[in-house]
Amino acid sequence: MKLNWGVLGAAKIAREKVIPSMAHHPDFQVLGLASRSLEKAKATAAALGILKAYGSYEELIADPDIHIIYNPLPNHLHVEYTLKCIEAGKHVLCEKPIALTAADVEKLIEARNRKGVVVGEAFMVRSHPQWIKAREMVQGGVLGKVTLVQGQFSYFNANPDNIRNIEAYGGGALWDIGCYPLNTTRFVLGEEPLRVAALLDFDSEFGTDVLSSVLLQFPSAQLQFSVSTQLVPHQRMQFFGQQKSLEILIPFNAPKDRPCLLRLNDGDIFREKEEVLETPLSDQYRLQAEAFTKAVLKGGEAPVPLEDALANTRALEAIFRAAKEGRWVEIPR
Ligand SMILES: NC(=O)c1ccc[n+]([C@@H]2O[C@H](COP(=O)([O-])OP(=O)(O)OC[C@H]3O[C@@H](n4cnc5c(N)ncnc54)[C@H](OP(=O)(O)O)[C@@H]3O)[C@@H](O)[C@H]2O)c1
């Protein structure tokens, strides 16, 4: 059976990445798109080859032809609309961060369990072979004992109308991109962080964090990462073991039209004999949709289930608390 997806809102990520990546698949199709404006829904649906357009999110949620809903609304609407979808008996793939408090993730877990649907957070990076390879190498001991992880993720966006710069929408660097170094480190190490210290700079006009540096203690390693919404675009993740280091060159916005590179270095500081590993051409958004649809068809777990989202959200909440209180904060389990 081919499953029908519906999309809430004509978000940039949906129009430019997620929907195009889901085209021409034997197991699913994007059947509908809803917008707060019917004209916008119709125009966007027509441009993307989507058959149904709705002038409200509620109409799409109520449509019995839609099986799975992709929720790329601004962060502050994720929980409200994901809950509406679950209550209507729909499966939901919701953009990161799925919630802005751990208590809200717990509400989603309760609703999911009661309705028996599949609900997941759209950390597409987890479906990309470069992260599966990194996890295999780190957990397989290729680097020796890994005790340090470092990450950076930045872009420059000072547009006051962008959802990332609106505090009430759950904007800011940590919620938008700080979630990635945290999520991927948890994935690669297979551990949860124990405690955190953090330094956050806030934009005086927006009230959102624009430069955030975080130190997290995991059971076996330290993670240091910095994220910014107002710095030169850059992204990198590095895992340091006692014998080798592993560097992921485009860790988060992995392109689909060229291979991704991982650099394995055994201490060659001049970087002349580094081993460069290439992952096969992959579209992380298509892989994410395939894995999610398979979970629905076969009755399995979402690729990034709510239990995982709960751990990520608890750590993110603790980061804010640590910065505010200027001290180490234990992360609840
Ligand atoms: N996984 C990834 O690679 C990735 C990348 C980028 C963003 N994201 C996530 O995807 C989500 C959307 O990001 P985006 O940059 O694509 O957002 P965006 O272009 O600003 O789109 C958000 C959409 O939400 C709808 N909306 C409903 N209420 C709104 C309000 N009060 N203000 C503004 N928009 C409202 C609008 O759709 P209508 O007007 O059509 O109703 C709008 O098009 C965020 O949660 C973000 O974290 C994920």
From TrEMBL:
This protein's gene is called: gfo_1
Q: Which family does it belong to?
A: Belongs to the Gfo/Idh/MocA family.
Instruction: Show the InterPro entries listed in the entry.
Output: Gfo/Idh/MocA-like_OxRdtase_N, Gfo/Idh/MocA_domain, GFO_IDH_MocA-like_dom, NAD(P)-bd_dom_sf
Protein origin, superkingdom:
Bacteria
Q: Does the keyword rRNA-binding apply?
A: no
Where would one find coiled-coil regions in this protein? none
Q: Which SUPFAM superfamilies match?
A: Glyceraldehyde-3-phosphate dehydrogenase-like, C-terminal domain, NAD(P)-binding Rossmann-fold domains
Q: What is the lineage of its organism?
A: Bacteria, Pseudomonadati, Bacteroidota, Cytophagia, Cytophagales
Does the record bear Oxidoreductase in its keywords? Answer: yes
**EC no.?**
1.1.99.28
GO MF term list: glucose-fructose oxidoreductase activity; nucleotide binding
Q: Could you list this entry's UniProt keywords, alphabetically sorted.
A: Oxidoreductase
* Residue span, Gfo/Idh/MocA-like oxidoreductase N-terminal domain: 3-121
A Pfam family per the record: GFO_IDH_MocA
Report domain GFO/IDH/MocA-like oxidoreductase positions: 132-246
- Protein name according to UniProt: Glucose--fructose oxidoreductase
